[in-house]
Amino acid sequence: MGPRVDLAIIFRSGAKSKAEAADAAAEYKRLLAVLTDGGLKAIGKKGASDSELLIFVWCPENKLQQLAEHERRTDFVYGVARAKVPSLTSTGNPDAVTPAERIRLVYAYISSPKADSGLGVAPGSPHWTRIQSIMALQDRDFNRAWLSNWTRKQVGFSIPISELDKIRDNFGESLALYFSFLSFYTRALFVPATLGLISWVLKAPYHPLYSLSLSLWAIATVDIWRVCERALSVRWGTHGVARVERRRVEFIAASNQDPSEENIAADADALFPWWKREFRMALSVPVISLFGILLGGLLTAIFLFEAFVTQLYDGPGKDYLGFIPTIIFVTVIPRIMGVYNQNAGSLTKWENHAHESSFNRSLTLKTFALSSIVAFLGLFLTAFVYIPFGPDVMRWVNTALFDSGHPDIAEAATDAGIKPLLPPIDIQAKINPGRLHAQMFAYTVTNQAINFFLETGLPFILRGIAKARVNRNIAGKRKDENPDAVTQLVENAREESALPEYTLFADYAEMVTQFGYIVIWSAAWPLAPLMALLNNWLELRSDAFKITSHGRRPLPQRVDTVGPWLEALGFITWVGALTNAALVYLFRPMTVGSHGRTTTAAQSGSPFLTTTLGRDIKVPHFSAGNATFGGKLGLTHATSTLLTAVLPAVLAALAASHAFFVVRALIRHVVERAVWRGSAEYRALGKAEREVKRKFLAEGGGDGFVPGVASNGIGAGPDAQDDGTDLWTGPDEGASVFAGLIKGE
Predict the structure, then answer these.
(1) 314: three-class secondary structure by DSSP
(2) Left, alpha or beta for 636 (phi > 0: left; psi -120 to 50: alpha)?
(3) CA distances for 539 relative to 429, 510, 532, angstroms
(4) What are the tens digits of pLDDT across the range 310-350?
(5) What is the distance of C-alpha 604 from the center of its chain?
């Protein structure tokens, strides 16, 4: 049997002076002492670089049994519901602990504060400044079997519950819940994909029935998933797990109350007043708003340049002018988002959240808010600015250049290749009514293909190049073709430590953004749900490949919900109801003329004129002597557009908003009754709660267990058994590294 390792701690060993090396050696020695005194096995090995050490940690079986028993009893006291009834007097069976549970228990024990019966060893702790991260090693045998099964056997659009249980057993509930959500959402896409395909075949964009069906589907999907995740949490024993969540090691208590009192149940508001945290969260709003205004202004400027200036310019390099907005977007926007994400992380840390779930919720909402601006602002500007007011904006630009009373400006504009004011019908022809459709195609097809390559293909290529360089560097050197198990494990750990940490944020954000494109904007291009369905079939498999090959193994987390992403889905559903009402009113084709004839693009010069906007707005009078519409700034045309089309669309959206809340309440009631109340998990939950109470009384009331107080040696240091390998009996390379640094070698 190979060496058994639960976790690896990446320790920064680099030092610029002997004094700094001595401090690093002291912290390293103290770290090993804390781990071994806590009942764990720990040994240091050289890391991926000369400035890193890998400290391997293994938890003996008797210690693991204590950790599992302590968690089980704590769950009982705080009412964490599960479908299976635990025994309070059973000694436990370590073989029944899944790999994910083992890693999670050991990680929680190491990283939790001492007040929560942990060791307090975690990145970000002021007591451990040289700990960079803690990682779990990949189970490569399971990964190969998992990928082979998914690529050869699981060819459908969903994941069976048995496969989800395997993911949960090896990666934890958080990752299993993500794949469950992805599978559920992908299956749900069959409904809008079918409706959209019918709408596309019938050539009926912006059809009221499609938009209404889409809104009803979105509401039902979100509420059914709300019940599904609840059922899964009962199945996996995590329902209500937030009640036993341990405090963050970075949490700073502001009161004199003993934080160990009642351990996990210690009121976070008593340790740090709620109003202080809320006040700090309120102070972050101006910062978020500032970045939002900056980002929105830049995106609007890019949009105006691409939509209008490129249409007016007719000078040298016209064919390349359209690349300027794209270059600005791909170079400047990511930098702004990077700076914002750093500030968002700092602000969230300053808010001093007691628990990881509330910290992640706050950070997720901050980050996704600005990501949504990048994703949806361009579509909003096209639908509600470019098409309704595009002629006015284009005329305003021409008027400002050629009829501003400044000959120098007009001459410079002419020299630059910008055309003078066009006749009215030519200006209208410059407005592209299919722009919204083109943008939807780009977002739901082109962008998803690019994201697939960036997530899956590019990391594979880069790793191949890096590996080839390493092989060239070691060419001619002797290499062990048959390394022993310990050497192979250390080499694997070094490779994995160089990989980025995997987080679920990017994957959830991608799916929620896709949901937004479908629910809010697919009326413009009904094939969007079908494209999303095909993309998600690949996503189910590419995500598995990405997790096993392109990042570190995710640390298991106990969760019972997708958290803030459920709130984001609900908000998007509401916005979709408003937007669809406005889009249908503004853009659905209308029959015009005394004979009920539908005007086509060839007959009207633009399909835009067949919509409500085109029907209500008449082309203003144009004269050669006054190259403007309704005055210099075209206010008559803009006001007419606003009053006869946009304002009624706003009223339609408000009416849809009121109807949304009524319909959602009805659907939620039906789903709760039909789906949840009739589920096996609902019945099992009620039965388990009754059985737990009966068992508790029959088995002596829990033997005086108090959560947070060391139980059966939790926090003490039992003798650690040997796992039967040479890893733990071999030399500790950390001591020799620091000895060399201190001597100046």
Answers:
(1) coil
(2) alpha
(3) 40, 10, 10
(4) 676 666 667 777 788 888 888 899 999 999 999 999 999 99
(5) 45
Sheet holding 7-12, edge to edge: 41-46, 52-58, 7-12, 131-135
Question: What digits encode the pLDDT tens for the residues 156-170?
Answer: 788 889 899 999 999
Place of tokens 């096209």: 382
Q: What is the Cα–Cα distance from 243 to 268, expressed in whole angstroms?
A: 12
Q: Where are the domains of the chain?
A: 7-144+682-743, 161-476+509-587
Paired tokens of 621: 């009078």
Cα R_g (the chain), whole angstroms: 31
Give the distance between the most distant pair of CA atoms in the chain.
Answer: 99
Q: How far apart are CA 135 and CA 32, in angstroms?
A: 17
Nearest to 43 by CA among 14, 7, 2: 7
Residue 150 has a pLDDT of 80
Angle between helices 505-516 and 564-587 (to 10 degrees): 20
Q: CB atoms < 10 A from the CB of 631, how many? A: 12
The model's pTM: 0.86
| Pick from 244, 52, 234: nearest CA to 131 | 52
| CA pair distance 608, 83, nearest whole angstrom | 58
> In the 8-state DSSP scheme, what is residue 554?
P
What span, in angstroms and rounded, lies between the C-alpha atoms of 599 and 611?
A: 9
Which token pair is 702?
């829990």
Condensed to tens digits (0 to 9), the pLDDT of residues 28-49 reads 999 999 999 999 999 999 888 8
CA dihedral 481, 486, 491, 497 (to 10 degrees): 170
Contact 115, 263 (CB under 8 A): yes
Low-confidence ranges of the chain (pLDDT < 70): 1, 81-95, 255-270, 310, 312-317, 397-430, 466-482, 590-638, 640-641, 644, 692-693, 695-726, 738-739, 741-745
Q: How far, in Å, CA of 85 to CA of 12, rounded?
A: 44
Place of tokens 């559903």: 573
The first and second tokens of residue 627, run together, are: 């190259």
Q: Report how far Cα 32 is from the mean position of its chain's Cα atoms.
A: 35
